[in-house]
Write a structure and sequence with these properties.
By secondary structure, the protein is mostly beta strands. It has strands at residues 6-8, 11-15, 20-24, 27-29, 36-37, 41-44, 49-51, 60-61, 64-68, 73-77, 80-81, 91-95. Helices cover 0% and strands 45% of the residues.
């Protein structure tokens, strides 16, 4: 079983079509000594967490995560990058079916 750790500055969205919750990790880790920015996208199916993307975007925090029903795409936008806390003005999409 894969455990999803505690995160802050993350984002969550629910997809009714597949009855799943998606979480982008943001900033976190297993304990105080392992805190860092993460580039993980987690999927919750009501029973367990699993990593949803093998090719997640570079690490972001304080970003927005939404689902577009018409295109069946998970959309991550904005936030801050790891390097110097610079504002990120890019968009990353992932097909969810």
């Amino acid at each position: 079983m894969i455990l999803c750790h505690r995160y802050s500055r993350s984002s969550v969205t629910y997809i009714n079509l597949c009855n799943k919750i998606y979480l982008t990790a943001g900033y976190g880790g297993t304990n105080q000594n392992s805190l860092s920015f993460k580039n993980q996208i987690w999927e919750w199916d009501g029973m367990a967490f699993s990593l949803a993307a093998s090719a997640a975007p570079k690490a972001f925090s304080s970003h927005s995560l939404n689902y577009d029903e018409s295109t069946k795409m998970l959309i991550l936008h904005g936030g801050y990058t790891v390097a110097g806390g610079n504002s990120a003005n890019n968009t990353w999409i992932m097909n969810v079916e």
